[in-house]
Amino acid sequence: MTRDALRLLYLPWDLVIEILSRVLTTSVRRLRFTCKRWNALFKDQEFIKKHMDKAPKQCKVLTLSDSKVYSMNVNLNGIHDNVVDPQTLLSLNDFHNPEQFKIYKIFHCNGLLLCTTTDLKLVVWNPFTGQIRWIPYSDHYKDDSKFVLGYENNKSRQTYKILRYSLEDYQVVDHGVYDFESHSWKNLNDVVPKNCSVTSKGVSLKGNIYWIAHKNYEEDLLLTFDFSTEKFRCLSIPFPSVDDDCVATALSVVREEQLSVLYSSVFNTRPKIEIWMTIHDKIDQTKVVSWSKFLSLELDENNPQITVSSFFMDEEKKAAVLCDLDYRNKRNKDMVYIVGEDNLLMKIPVGESRLQFLRPVIHNYVPSLVRIQQGGVMTRERKRKNRH
Q1: For the chain, how many helices (H) and strands (E)?
Q2: What dihedral angle (degrees, nearest 10) is formed by the CA atoms of 150, 324, 76, 29?
Q3: Sign of CA dihedral 319, 323, 324, 326
C-alpha cells in the first residue's frame, strides 16, 4: 500500500467516499484492491450511484467487427490539420472480449452492454468489472425481435430491464419485458401509439429508450419507452428547423445527459449533413426542448454522399465520427468518417464487412461501476470464488 493510500485511510470515511466518487472510472477500478474496505465500497449500490452522478464522464467509441467489440481510439485533434494522414487519426483495440461468446449486436446503457450472440442468445456484460449475466430464452422471440436495455429509476437503486419488440411496416406490433429482479419475461399488452413509425435505432438515456419516429409519415416525433411504467409514448418535441428535404436519420447520446440528432439531405443538388443537440438535460422531465446546431457538412465530389446509421460527437473538439457501409468492387467495407468544422471530412476504412445486411454501428460508450443484478445466474466472477 502506498503512503498516499495510507493517508487517505486516516481521513474521515465520509470524506474518502466524497473524494472517490469524483475519481475517473478507469482509475477507480485500479484502486479497488487497495484494501478490503475500498473493495467493498466499489460494490455498494449507493456509492455506485453517487459515482455515476459526480465522476467525470469518459466517453469511448466502440465498434463491432467480426463478432468482437473494439475500442476505437480517435484523435479528433488532427481533424483540423489539413496535412494529417487519416490513418493516424484512428486505431482499433481489442476490448477484452469474453471468449465464451461471439457478438452479433450490442446495445449500450449506463456502462453495460446488452449483447446478442451469433447463436441468438442474450448476455449483459460490464467490460470494466468483468461481470456478465446470461438472459433466459423466451418462447415469444421472433426472427426479427430487437432488444434494448434500460432501467426503472427508483430513488434508492436502478432496476434493470430488457425490452423485446418487433416491427411490422416500421410500427411496434409485439413487445415484452425481462425484469432482472424477477428473472423472467412477460408480454406487454398496452396500446402502442398508432400511426407512429420507427425510423432509427434506439438509444438509452437516463433509463428510457428513444427512437426517431414519424406520425403518418409527416410529423417528426420521439417515441420513448419508459421502463418505470412499461409503456410507450410519443413526445411531440419540436425538432430543429432544417431544409424540407432533410430527414432525421439517427440519434446519439451526449455524455449520458443530452440527445443529439443527425439530419441528412439526399435530394438537394448540394446534399448535406447536420447534427443538432438538445440544449439542456431535462428531456425526461419536459415536453418543450430546445436544440442548437452542432455542425453542418455539405456533400460534393470531395465529400461523397453518406448514409449514416450511427454517430458520435465531441463538443470540445467540434468534431463528429460517422459510420457507414461502403460498397466497392463487389465488397462491403466498414467506413468511418471524421467530420470537423469548415466542411472538413476524412474517410477511413476499418475493415471488410462479412455480413452484407448489417450496417456498421458505433457506440458512444461511458464506462461505469454498475453491478449487474444476478439472481440465480452465476457470473464468471462468482464461479472463480466457488472453485477456491
Answers
A1: 6, 25
A2: 30
A3: positive
